[in-house]
């Protein structure tokens, strides 16, 4: 008689999928943050964006550490899929055919904002899990969550400024074309 394998723990399997999905998103977020920071390095927003890019990279490493602590394997296929998805995402229409539009900055900052809000949700879920799982470092998760909240405020401020500038410049060109 063959030995049967006990059924897999569905909670562990869900956690593996959940954390790998967040790892996939964090990879796209790191690449986007670096690209935005590089593009704006000579602007007033440059220092804030460079700081954000470094923090987002550190946060990805923190997620990898959490996964190791929990014994959650990294699914490389997720990482490759994320790279492909992020690359294809760059092909989005921006109102211009050949060059960047002011709208590109707004959309990219919104994508970053959504990504950081998702990351904060992940830290909150892990913080709740830390109440019953001693492998998780609750104070470190609190620190990561506070940093994500700060990143949300910074990104929302930058997004709002870029949106105001982009939409004002579009409105000014429209008015000039009419007169």
General description of the model:
With 179 residues, the chain is mainly alpha-helical. The chain is built from five helices and no strands. It has helices at 10-39, 46-70, 76-89, 102-130, 138-178. α1 runs antiparallel to α2, α1 runs antiparallel to α4 and α4 runs antiparallel to α5. The longest helix is centred in the C-terminal third of the chain and has 41 residues, at 138-178. The protein is elongated and about 50 Å long.
Question: What are the main properties of this structure?
Answer:
179 residues, mainly alpha, 78% helix
Q: What helical percentage do the residues reach? A: over 70%
Distance between the termini: 88 Å
User: What is the tally of beta strands?
Assistant: 0
Question: Helix/strand/pairing class, anyone?
Answer: mainly alpha
**Percent range for β-strand residues:** under 5%
- Largest sheet, strands/sense/barrel: none
Short précis:
The chain is an all-alpha fold and 179 residues long. It has helices spanning 10-39, 46-70, 76-89, 102-130, 138-178. The N and C termini lie far apart (88 Å).
List the helices and strands and how they pair.
Blueprint: H1 10-39, H2 46-70, H3 76-89, H4 102-130, H5 138-178
Helix pairs in contact: 1-2, 1-3, 1-4, 2-5, 4-5
